[in-house]
């Protein structure tokens, strides 16, 4: 009798996913609701055939070596995979996978939520009411920004960027986008205009970031870019924190170089850049863009299917190895 393969899951995910895996393999889940340290990760992956990991787990050559040569597949429970050293895994014959497609609606809806909440000063006004400071209706209380018919700039026209554009059309927003590729069909559908980065910065009333984190997109928005934006502009980031130079953003917000920011992600999560949390014109939430029940289940289904496929000798649906 052959022994069952062993799968480690680095943090609690929907029980349906664990059950699906348990039908095939021995499965162990990190019992604590916290990210594993690097040493713990190396220790827990030792001898495993597969793992489900999170964006907080750095999977590089050292971790893969600690796991051992039997490790076949690491399935990230995320669409982003900047926590993976792709070359190190490929050299060791380890398949890496992600969960594309199933987070687009949740993430795009969350992007619009951040945009609306920042523009209409929802976090500030909520705190004001809770603190018992509201004295009654007044015409000039918490006057925010118009959203309808304003220009939405999209940096990075992947699945999520496109989804945001479609939702923004419901507010009659004019769409401009910067991307390496021009998409004539998308332009015909949404009326969007392809622009260069400088035009995107100059013309956007709301600028939303949907680029992956790569060496080329690290600090895609820094001090110079913030200075190039309108003083009335709002920056939205639900991609990856290091795409924005957060210290420069704090300075720009303090100096009134832009009007506000809605942030789901941060450079050094869970820490925030000094001064950021004290600013009234930012909305900050803890990396929850994809946090809906259907999305979490769907992410689990993809990760589990990828592991089942690889350990049964089949090609996985969403491999990210080069
Ligand atoms: C992702 O999937 O990359 C998100 O950031 C977390 O769900």
Keywords:
7-stranded parallel beta sheet; 322 residues; binds (2R)-2,3-dihydroxypropanoic acid; 12 strands; 2 domains; Rossmann fold; alpha/beta
CATH class assignment of the largest domain: Alpha Beta
What's the β-strand tally?
12
Number of helices: 12
Integer count of domains: 2
Strand order of the largest sheet: 8-7-6-9-10-11-12
Unreliable runs: none
CATH-scheme architecture of the largest domain: 3-Layer(aba) Sandwich
Domain D-isomer specific 2-hydroxyacid dehydrogenase NAD-binding: 112-289
Family: Belongs to the D-isomer specific 2-hydroxyacid dehydrogenase family.
GO molecular function: glyoxylate reductase (NADPH) activity; hydroxypyruvate reductase [NAD(P)H] activity; NAD binding
Pfam family, one: 2-Hacid_dh
Explained architecture:
35% of the residues lie in helices and 14% in strands. By secondary structure, the protein is an alpha/beta fold. The protein folds into two domains: 6-102 and 293-311, NAD(P)-binding Rossmann-like Domain (Rossmann fold, 3-Layer(aba) Sandwich), CATH 3.40.50; 104-284, Rossmann fold, CATH 3.40.50. The strands form two sheets. A seven-stranded parallel β-sheet has the order 8-7-6-9-10-11-12, sandwiched between helices. The protein has a five-stranded parallel β-sheet with strand order 2-1-3-4-5. β7 (174-178), α8 and β8 form a beta-alpha-beta unit. α1 (15-22) packs parallel to α12, α2 (38-45) packs parallel to α3 and α5 crosses α7 (159-169). The model has no long low-confidence stretch (mean pLDDT 98). (2R)-2,3-dihydroxypropanoic acid (DGY) binds next to loops. Residues 55, 78-80, 103, 290 line the site of (2R)-2,3-dihydroxypropanoic acid. It comes from Ancylobacter mangrovi.
């Amino acid at each position: 009798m052959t022994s069952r393969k062993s799968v480690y899951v680095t943090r609690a995910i929907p029980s349906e996913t664990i059950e699906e895996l348990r039908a095939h393999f021995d499965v162990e889940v990190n019992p604590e609701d916290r990210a594993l340290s690097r040493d713990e990760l190396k220790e827990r992956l030792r001898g495993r055939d597969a793992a489900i990991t999170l964006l907080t787990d750095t999977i590089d050559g050292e971790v893969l070596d600690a796991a051992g040569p039997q490790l076949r597949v690491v399935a990230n429970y995320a669409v982003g995979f900047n926590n993976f050293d792709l070359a190190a895994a490929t050299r060791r014959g380890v398949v890496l996978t992600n969960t594309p497609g199933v987070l687009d609606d949740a993430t795009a809806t969350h992007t619009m939520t951040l945009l609306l909440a920042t523009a209409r000063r929802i976090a500030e006004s909520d705190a004001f009411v809770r603190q018992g400071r509201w004295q009654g209706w007044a015409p000039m209380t918490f006057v925010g920004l118009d959203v309808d018919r304003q220009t939405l700039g999209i940096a990075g026209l992947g699945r999520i960027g496109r989804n945001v554009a479609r939702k923004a059309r419901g507010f009659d927003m004019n769409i401009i986008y910067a991307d390496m590729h021009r998409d004539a069909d998308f332009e015909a559908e949404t009326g969007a205009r392809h622009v260069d980065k400088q035009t995107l910065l100059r013309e956007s009333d709301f600028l939303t970031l949907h680029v992956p984190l790569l060496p080329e997109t690290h600090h895609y928005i820094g001090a110079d870019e913030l200075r190039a934006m309108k003083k009335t502009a709002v920056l939205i980031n639900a991609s990856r924190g290091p795409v924005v130079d957060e210290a420069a953003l704090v300075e720009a917000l303090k100096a009134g170089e832009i009007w506000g920011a809605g942030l789901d992600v941060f450079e050094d999560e869970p820490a925030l850049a000094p001064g950021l949390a004290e600013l009234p014109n930012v909305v900050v939430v803890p990396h929850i863009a994809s946090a809906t029940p259907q999305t979490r289940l769907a992410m689990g289904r993809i990760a589990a299917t990828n592991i089942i496929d690889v350990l049964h000798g089949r090609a996985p649906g969403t491999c990210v190895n080069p």
